[in-house]
């Protein structure tokens, strides 16, 4: 069930199940209205004690009424406020879920990357000592670029990994032939034949496949969480159209003006009004469900280490 459908169900359930206290349909007194009106936090100044002619009303029926023009305006504003608050509250869990999941995954993946860099650095330092330390920037640059890719940087993974192996080959070739001096053109020529020479065997191909798969999945997943959060934030900020406010006021508060503050709308009526107010959000429903489905599958695959 989508967040917008939950808004509809919750709002209409609350409207129908709200406690209604008696008001005689034939009664001319506005005492019940005054009690309900002040319970909403409004002042009773200029609120009538008895029904009066309602020609001044613009939203509610213009028969005998307990509402002044000011009351009708305030009840319209109250309808809008209650609707906005309900949408905000209902979508809050969804939004906080995206935020917390993004934070946890981001911290987890960056920690994983940092630990990998540290482990490799410690192992190579123990194994090759000063020789590695003098050339460690090749590996440091690799991890810097991997982090930049993951965080949304404009990095071509394939080109970056190819460049890493080319740089590593040039360094090793120079170290193994330290008695000679090689020009940049000569070293560049050597790096061009890396695929044919295969000085590192099949390691570059296997590593490229593993790194590319892992980082594309991680970056796509974390960006999906960010997109979901932004969509949820925007959808939660409902632009309440004047027609929606009128419909909400008629449904929720025009009974006040008729002297029947306890009268509540039927379920179908309430749902129709809510569908109209959430029409724009409802258009997102198919795409949103596809996004959530893909996100759940992605989370499952990553958690399984695929």
TrEMBL record:
Main location: membrane
Membrane topology term: Lipid-anchor; GPI-anchor
GO cellular component assignments: cell surface; extracellular region; plasma membrane; side of membrane; synapse
Coiled coil regions in record: none
UniProt entry keywords in alphabetical sequence: Cell membrane, Glycoprotein, GPI-anchor, Heparan sulfate, Lipoprotein, Membrane, Proteoglycan, Signal
Signal peptide (residue range): 1-22
Gene Ontology biological-process annotations: cell migration; regulation of protein localization to membrane; regulation of signal transduction
Cell location: Cell membrane
One of the Pfam families matching this protein, by short name: Glypican
InterPro entries: Glypican, Glypican_CS
Family: Belongs to the glypican family.
Task of the protein: Cell surface proteoglycan.
Full protein name: Glypican 6a
Species the sequence originates in: Esox lucius (Northern pike)
Upper lineage: Eukaryota, Metazoa, Chordata, Craniata, Vertebrata
């Amino acid at each position: 069930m989508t967040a917008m459908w939950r808004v509809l169900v919750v709002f209409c359930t609350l409207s129908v199940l709200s406690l209604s206290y008696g008001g005689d349909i034939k009664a001319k007194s506005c005492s019940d209205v005054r009690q309900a009106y002040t319970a909403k936090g409004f002042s009773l100044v200029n609120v009538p004690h008895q029904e009066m002619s309602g020609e001044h009303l613009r939203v509610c029926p213009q028969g005998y009424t307990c509402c002044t023009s000011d009351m009708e305006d305030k009840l319209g504003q109250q309808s809008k406020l209650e609707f906005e608050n309900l949408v905000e509250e209902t979508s809050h869990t969804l939004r906080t879920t995206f935020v917390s999941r993004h934070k946890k995954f981001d911290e987890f993946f960056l920690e994983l990357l940092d630990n990998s860099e540290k482990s490799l650095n410690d192992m190579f330092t123990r194994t090759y000592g000063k020789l590695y330390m003098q050339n460690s920037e090749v590996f440091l640059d690799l991890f810097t670029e991997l982090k930049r890719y993951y965080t949304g940087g404009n990095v071509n993974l394939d080109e970056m990994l190819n460049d890493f192996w080319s740089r590593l080959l040039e360094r090793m070739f120079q170290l193994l032939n330290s008695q000679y001096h090689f020009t940049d053109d000569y070293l560049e020529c050597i790096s061009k034949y890396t695929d044919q020479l295969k000085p590192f065997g099949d390691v570059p191909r296997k590593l490229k496949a593993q790194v590319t798969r892992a980082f594309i999945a991680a970056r796509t997943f974390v960006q999906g969480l960010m997109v979901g959060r932004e969509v949820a934030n925007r959808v939660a900020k409902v632009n309440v159209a004047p027609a929606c406010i009128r419909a909400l006021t008629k449904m929720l508060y025009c009974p006040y003006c008729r002297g029947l503050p306890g009268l509540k709308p039927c379920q179908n009526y309430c749902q129709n009004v809510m569908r109209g107010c959430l029409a724009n959000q409802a258009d997102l429903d198919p795409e949103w469900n596809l996004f959530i489905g893909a996100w759940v599958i992605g989370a499952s695959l990553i958690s399984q280490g695929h």
